[in-house]
Here is the input.
Amino acid sequence: MSPGGGDPPGWLRELQRDFTAVLRAPLDSGTGRFEERQALYPARLVAQLRSGTGGPAPAERLALYHRQYWMRLFTALQTSFPRVSRAMSCWHFNHLAALHLAERPPRHADLDEAARGFAERLHRALERLEDAGPRRPPERPPHGDAWCRRIELSRAPLAMVRQARCMDEAERHAYESPFEGLWRPTPEELARLALGEPRLRFAESCTLAQEDWDLARFSRLAAADQDEGAPAPIRRHPSTRTWVFARSATGTTTTSVDPLFARLLDRCRELPFGQALAAVEQGCTAAEAAQLRASLQGWIALALASGWWTGLAGAEPRAQESPNDDPGRA
Amino acid sequence: MSAPRDAADDRAPGARSSIPREALGLGLRPPHHEAIERLRPRLGFFEIIAENYLGASPLPRERLRRIAERYPIVAHGVSLNLLGEAPLDRDHLSRLRDLIQELRIPYFTDHLCWTAFEGVTHHDLLPAPHDPELIPYAAGRAFEVQEALGVPFGIENLSSYVAWERDTVPEWVFYRRVVEESGCWAMLDINNVVVSSKNHGFDPLEYLDSVPWHRVLQVHLAGHQVLPSGLRHDTHDRPVGDEVWSLYEEAWRRGGPFPTLLEWDAEIPPLSVALSELDKARQVRSS
Here is the structure.
């Protein structure tokens, strides 16, 4: 047998080109739902379809593939961006997804890869909107940029969309990161920490994200259960919350942390532990300082048990695998 | 092209015995991972969608390794592009081979269809005409896949919604000839036979008449929808329908035993519901 089976017949390429054109043609949303326009299907392709006796017409049969193509990709992007799609509503989000997919059609066998690059495009659109100043009143002409116009049409607060994007990206980053094990500091390392000298090394997967609207409850891992028919309202919290996204041994974790601990974690990214602690203390009220002192050991234990730190900067990574890691704290 | 292989020419001894012929398996999907690790259900094997383990995240493969310690794993693909006009993707085959070797996967299956054009992946299983001109082309590519992967390759029949003016041989003849001329194996999807028979108006028993039973590596079962237009839609989102069970019973009578796998890819129910569906397969076989 000859490997590859020789060259394909010439007609196959033409047929697949026309079929591809049908699949990739954007669905029309003018009627308030995404629908195909069968009249625009290439006549050359439709003529090659057998009509048969009874049953749907050839173009209607072709339309099943067309709709399926877009709905599968919309679902894939909603799964990757569960918070953005909820913040904007799936209707407006799907328009952005269509723009993204037109600019960057999927080329990887893994469907999840179709979402690659979407976050950057959304980020740039949000920047353009912010550069343009406050939201336009409804009577003003819409933004000329399709991404910006669609975000505006969603009427979602820009800050909420921005936070949703950051949280979705943090979750994706955790999902794509390796689990580096749990670090159990030696007495020598604890002594160095007590002196405040070294910086802590954070796990690659570990990201802090702020939340002013209740977006954390959405997750790429639970997206299948979130159906557009029953959208729960997204409420604004009385105060900002901070979440830590990270990898565990068995999955990803999303953990709410106290605002003081969030500040400490943030400072620890750049400063040695002792300096970070001092910087946070300096900004504390007396009550907060007391809380910091009372809670510090527990917070450190949480960070170690969750694998957010993997060792001291400048030392060899010493994190160790633990089968008893506790996933899914949310 | 060399002569077609026959049943005695088993290029992979043990290929048909690596998964017990009576085994029942389930498509491994993320919503079931936790329950599988906790409950350790009695199952013959799990089948993975290979592409789900070739992405950027190490997490899916880490989870899979734990399950593979307890169950045989077979791999099913959705992007080989066997009937595509472009050369086979050697990088993709190489990644598949790595996955197969790492997890000691006994065989690989994918569809007799096309999935991409000019480098753009459609993430769908698209039909090509049943034109005899395509048979040596498809058979040659299937042979190449089997050689590249180093394990038996099972070719799956497609469910489809369109028929072509170029369909000059019946689907079952096209399918059988590709399987036989490639020296590969058949991955017979009973649900797909029912879906296509309803969509195109043929007798599914006539399809079974043509199946090369001695080359059936595995059988798939799944549920499908009936759309308002009357078309059957291969959705894998519900229990297996009565027509599919009836045809499975007939297939078992004609060609059993063969490993049987339930696919449930959308509206995925709790593990217990999927396992109950497999119990129906046991009952159908013994009826």
